[in-house]
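Please go through the sequence and fold tokens given here and tell me how the chain folds. Record follows.
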Amino acid sequence: SVTTVVNAVNAMSYIRGSTNTASGISYTQSSILNAARPGARRILVVLTDGQSQTPPGAAAAAVRSAGVTVFSIGVGNGPSTTELVSIAGTVSNVHSVTSYNALSSSVVQIATTLCNVVVTGAPTTRTPTVLVTSAPATPAPTHPLCTNVGPIELVFLVDGSGSVRTSGFASSKAFVNQMAARFGLGPQSTRVAVVQYSGPGQVRVAIGLNQGTSTTAVVAATNGMAAFNGGTDTGGAITAVRNAVFSFARPGARKILVVLTDGQSATAPGSAAQQARRSGITIFSIGVGSGIGQA
């Protein structure tokens, strides 16, 4: 779960010391990647800010020859491009940022590249747009990257409670717009619905699955949402979406629900989420700010 991973990452202590990327790659292969599930896609992301004491090319080549896709992310001016390419095996899988502080602004670009690898099995050479975090602008023209994945029903459940505030609600709408632009929308491929929720009984469909077949339509509907500014009832909203939105899902289509929230739900959402998953809906929850519960 995301909670488990976040807690483990936050608990890591800084080792300090020198840089031996080759040793780190070899250890990861023998101790972690060798325990991968049969048939699972294996991806290794290497973050480094310096050149390795031992050249990492051989260790990385061994990992790649075992079927692992490798991405290298160089931070600052320390890493050499040659070494980063030797780790990833191709320049398409190399990313560079100016500093550790700049990593956060590159998350969407890197994640989109990973998505493309998972979907198509090959990296993209396109340059994805970066997530807008201010006004809910129309996404810049771009080629969708999550395509050829079969029919998908993708529903965004957006927190419109008072604690989100105007700036947070605008950022949430911008996130939905940018995500919609990354899928090839169409009546036979991915359809998008956007639903706003707040307190008990406050659920409003901005655009349904039957209408959400183009980025233009989704962006216009999302930008037109006005915040409820009430409480937070995530559990009730999940149930409402399962009953009133996913009921229009096409037979055989993959059903995905993305829940954005910045507060703990007045109604515990666990039961509602479990029922949604039992009906075949995959759920992603995105907690914003410090008000979310970690359980």
